[in-house]
């Protein structure tokens, strides 16, 4: 609203100078018709000023007819023909014309984009000249509001997620103090404290990673990344968790694929996908990580992580990449999940100019696929499949 006020002040001042000059020379220029609108009396140069404004701009005459409207105002549906469609704006314009005072407000109009329910505008209405004309400036605030809402939700979620393990550790510390004479109880509660401390560490690490990549900043030191090495590194880091549930981790697909990017970020994304697959799969199953070339001349690399787990309801599949969103909050907390893993995967994919998709069916498992631009020449197909032995983690 402050930026809109400053812009409006500049525009109104510039237009007022034009009006004074026009009146002092006793001239009154006519506009040519625009979009079928009958020409109205406007000072020289007004159309040129309004044409360069980034916000929606409308000039009304004393009878509330539109003399000039920017393309943005028409695109947003604020103006049709020679009529201002927003009743709230029209009411503000009449008040300004009546008392000559500049007014500011915020309004909401029906959405102009597919799937968008409404558009929020910060508006400023000012008198223009002495012929009853009024200038209306409207700035689209929808994306700003959305970002602010996401930021508020993020802060609230982070506060909640941090409070849980910190509160648990505080209670456990008090319990250990009270049970100082019971070695068995001290050992048991100390173990639970270690679990909560690990959970807190994972959350902080995920927050740092997400903060690092979500700003759409370029990767600091990109280079060629060999997919085989990234996959095996990620599988290595997940072996212990998989071994505890007797889940077999299998690597397969095409060897020799490369992308241009950051190997540690790719390993982080794959580790999160594998960790999720293991956490939501029953015991004695397997998780398959495979890579292949896609598109003409292997323009893309696709890395898929498939499990035989519980699957994801169709209604939740559009939201699973949101920060802190959990399909089953109780199960996620029981497995130590932070709710940030898939958000990190999405941002890692975006940082590499790629994308992540999901296929899932309840009771049949899920497949997450990272699709990233390939680097270098054609991949070498290797039909053999490598199974990572779980004994190595034991």
Detailed description of the structure:
With 394 residues, the protein is of the alpha+beta class. It contains ten helices and 15 strands. It has helices at residues 2-25, 46-51, 71-75, 87-99, 142-178, 183-213, 227-244, 263-279, 329-334, 341-351; strands at 56-60, 66-69, 79-80, 83-84, 103-110, 118-128, 133-140, 223-226, 248-253, 258-261, 286-294, 300-306, 355-361, 365-373, 386-387. The strands form four sheets. Strands 13-14-12-11-9-15 form a six-stranded mixed β-sheet, with helices on one face. Strands 2-1-7-6-5 form a five-stranded antiparallel β-sheet, sandwiched between helices. Strands 3-4 form a two-stranded antiparallel sheet.
Summarize the structure.
By secondary structure, the protein is of the alpha+beta class.
């Amino acid at each position: 609203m402050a930026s809109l006020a400053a812009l409006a002040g500049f525009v109104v001042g510039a237009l007022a100078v034009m009006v004074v000059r026009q009146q002092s020379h006793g001239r009154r220029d006519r506009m040519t018709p625009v979009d079928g609108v009958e020409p109205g009396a406007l000072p020289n140069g007004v159309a040129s000023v309004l044409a360069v404004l980034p916000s929606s701009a409308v000039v009304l005459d004393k009878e509330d007819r539109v003399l000039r409207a920017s393309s943005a105002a028409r695109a947003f549906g604020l103006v049709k023909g020679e009529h201002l469609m927003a009743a709230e704006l029209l009411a503000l314009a009449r008040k300004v014309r009546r008392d000559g005072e500049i007014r500011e407000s915020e309004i909401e109009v029906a959405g102009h984009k597919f799937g968008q329910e409404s558009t929020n505008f910060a508006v400023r209405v000012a008198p223009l000249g002495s012929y009853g004309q009024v200038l209306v400036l409207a700035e689209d605030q929808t994306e700003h509001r959305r970002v602010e809402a996401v930021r508020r939700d993020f802060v609230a979620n982070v506060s909640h997620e941090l409070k849980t393990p910190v509160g648990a550790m505080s209670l456990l510390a008090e319990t250990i103090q009270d049970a100082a004479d019971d070695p068995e109880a001290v050992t048991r509660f100390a173990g639970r404290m270690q679990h909560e401390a690990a959970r807190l560490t994972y959350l902080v690490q995920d927050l740092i990673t997400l903060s690092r990549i979500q700003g759409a900043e370029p990767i600091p030191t990109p280079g060629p990344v060999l997919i085989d090495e990234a996959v095996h590194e990620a599988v290595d880091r997940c072996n212990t968790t998989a071994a505890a549930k007797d889940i077999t981790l299998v690597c397969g697909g095409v060897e020799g694929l490369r992308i241009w990017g950051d190997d540690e970020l790719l390993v982080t994304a794959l580790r999160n996908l594998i960790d999720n697959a293991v956490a939501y799969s029953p015991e004695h199953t397997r998780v398959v990580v495979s890579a292949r070339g896609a598109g003409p001349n292997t323009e893309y690399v696709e890395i898929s992580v498939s499990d035989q787990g519980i699957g994801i309801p169709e209604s939740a599949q559009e939201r699973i990449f949101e920060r802190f969103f959990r399909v089953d909050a109780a199960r996620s907390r029981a497995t130590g999940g932070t709710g940030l893993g898939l958000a990190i995967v999405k941002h890692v994919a975006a940082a590499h100019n790629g994308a992540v998709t999901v296929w899932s069916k309840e009771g049949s498992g899920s497949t997450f696929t990272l699709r990233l631009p390939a680097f270098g020449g054609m991949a070498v197909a290797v039909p053999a499949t490598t199974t990572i032995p779980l004994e190595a983690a034991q």
